[in-house]
Amino acid sequence: MNHWIIIPVILPAMVAPLIVLGMRNDLTLQRIASIAATVALLAVSALLLVQASTSGPQVYLLGNWAAPFGIVLVLDRLSALMVALTALLALGVVLYAVGSGWDGRGKNFHALFQFQLMGICGAFLTGDAFNLFVFFEILLIASYGLMIHAGGRDRLRAGVQYVVFNLAGSTLFLFALGAIYAITGTLNMADLAVKVADLPEGHDALLRVAGVLLLIVFAVKGALVPFQFWLPGTYALAPGPVAALFAVMTKVGAYAILRFYTLIFGPEVEATGTFYANLLVPLALVTLVVGMVGVLGARSLARLAAFAAIGSMGTLFLAMSDFTPLSTAATLYYLIHSTIAAALMFLVADMVLERRGNTLLVPRPPIARHGLIAALFFASAIAMAGMPPLSGFLGKLLILDALGDRADMAITWSAILITSLIAIVGMSRAGSIVFWKAHAISGDPAEVRPMPLAFTATFGMLGVLVAMTVLAGPLMGWLQETADQVHDTGAYIDAVLGLGATEDN
Amino acid sequence: MEILVASAIGLMTASGVYLVLRLRAWPVILGLTMLTYAVNVFLFTSGRLVVDMPAILSADAGGYADPLPQALVLTAIVISFGMTAVAVMMALGAFLEAGDDRVEMTDQEDRK
């Protein structure tokens, strides 16, 4: 067995208690430990990425209990990609948090941050549905702490809403898992795929209900309309670096939907067929419209970024709902892009917040480092809206191409193109009010301590987007193979259940 | 027994949903607690309702009680207990900071 697979879970799980217990009064030590752990996580995830691309799905049996009886972790290209994306984003975020001083404004930022990484990496790696629930709870409970980091009345109130919404979602998750267990008698994802594929007659209705419940749970995470209400308040009021990290949390929902509805409830399953894909299309269309109209109507930069994130999730789910290897490859490209771009936008909004006390879209005197921040916002807006030359444009082009053969192509194409235009208008409006009209008002910018590390982290994220654009060809080739692997469910099932059989002897 | 368990789950879920939709933090948290009670019993029944059966397969017994849902319920209880504690602390923090325990945010707060 390849023991590297469990390191992305173990490493943060070990570092976080160490930070709480051994370094609680020393911020410098905490910073060193947290950055070192994140760099190590990135290195391990790069190693896993290489391993996943050179071999088929690999299985890690926890406690060496054979699947489907024990819990398994599964490393395939998709999960390796998601872990690597998380680690890359986390490095940028932790550098920004240190550079901007956000981590010192409350206690335990770095410990919660590491626990959050543990939950996210675990959710991407697990091959067991109940274990997925457990990792969801780990990432949620850490996110509750991060969300209200540094406190404040509005943040706490938004935090309560966020907690209540997600607790209700967790309850629903348990209902779905209970129903699935009652029907199939297993919760191992590969075993579920086998059991669901040849389900005895008479259980179809209950299975479909359980599938819809699961879809709702993942839609809550992925901010799919009508379950997006928690997102704008949470993301806009969370500390900037936390909101940037949360950009990958919505992708946990997207990943779970991609995994479950290709592996277990795929279109070839008799009991469910394309039921879920058909459900996803209208919801994704509405999400796209709500998000981009929200961008146009937002009253502050932070809220604009939050609605842009909802809109990008709409685009993502629309592309995903086709459930073919071609569309999945496009989805994955856009997923990487939108995670980094949304995080970049939250960080820029935080830089503005830092320098003028709010991000309201009203003209104020210029802020310190005005030009640099304006340029960063310009770049992030181009990326989010999907204009050339950055990777958002390529991502949307790939999605349009993948959806071009569908019967509802007229609707999906016009939805994506028109909402892109709305987003461009909304972001230009916001950018001109905040950054250009500022020059009409005289006043010296308040002195702010220079934050070289924060700017480095932000430009680093922009660099990732540029790299994604330049290296789009090789990246797409790799992602196409990944998408093929995602849809080749046989290999996944064989890896999990086959390994269990051989280890028995 | 089936009717008793089913109606208990249904009643707890219904009252939980009703309470979650209230506007004050305290009833909402009580509602979440009711929902987790309901889901715990539901998970328990997902291994089928049986009486007086061993929790393991045995040649002598006529059947067995599925032990897996019991393990799942145990995990779910621990997690929901922790989550409820976090929710109570956050609601308390919001109450102390804001002076009231409304769950919804006013337009003024929403604009930020």
UniProtKB/TrEMBL annotation, chain A:
InterPro entries on file: CPA3_Na-H_Antiporter_D (IPR050586), NADH_UbQ_OxRdtase (IPR003918), ND/Mrp_TM (IPR001750)
One GO term (biological process): ATP synthesis coupled electron transport
Keywords tagged on the record: Cell membrane, Membrane, Transmembrane, Transmembrane helix
Pfam families, sorted: Proton_antipo_M
Membrane topology designation: Multi-pass membrane protein
Subcellular location per the Swiss-Prot or TrEMBL entry: Cell membrane; Membrane
Residue stretches spanning the membrane: 6-23, 35-53, 65-97, 132-150, 162-185, 205-230, 242-264, 276-297, 304-320, 332-352, 372-390, 410-430, 451-472
Any single GO CC term annotated in Swiss-Prot or TrEMBL for this entry: plasma membrane
Domain NADH:quinone oxidoreductase/Mrp antiporter transmembrane: 128-421
Gene Ontology MF terms: NADH dehydrogenase (ubiquinone) activity
NCBIfam families noted in UniProt: PRK12666.1
Main function: NDH-1 shuttles electrons from NADH, via FMN and iron-sulfur (Fe-S) centers, to quinones in the respiratory chain. The immediate electron acceptor for the enzyme in this species is believed to be ubiquinone. Couples the redox reaction to proton translocation (for every two electrons transferred, four hydrogen ions are translocated across the cytoplasmic membrane), and thus conserves the redox energy in a proton gradient.
UniProt family annotation: Belongs to the CPA3 antiporters (TC 2.A.63) subunit D family.
Name of the protein in its database record: Multisubunit potassium/proton antiporter, PhaD subunit
TrEMBL record, chain B:
Topological type in the membrane: Multi-pass membrane protein
Keywords carried by this UniProt record: Cell membrane, Membrane, Transmembrane, Transmembrane helix
Keyword DNA-binding part of the UniProt annotation: no
Presence of keyword Transmembrane: yes
InterPro entries: CPA3_antiporter_subunitC (IPR050601), NUOK/Mnh_C1-like (IPR039428)
Family matches, as NCBIfam families: PRK09094.1
Similarity comment: Belongs to the CPA3 antiporters (TC 2.A.63) subunit C family.
Protein's recorded name: Multisubunit potassium/proton antiporter, PhaC subunit
Broad class of the protein's primary localization: membrane
PANTHER family: ANTIPORTER SUBUNIT MNHC2-RELATED (PTHR34583)
Transmembrane segments: 26-51, 72-96
Coiled-coil region: none
A Gene Ontology term for the protein's cellular component: plasma membrane
Compartments where located: Cell membrane
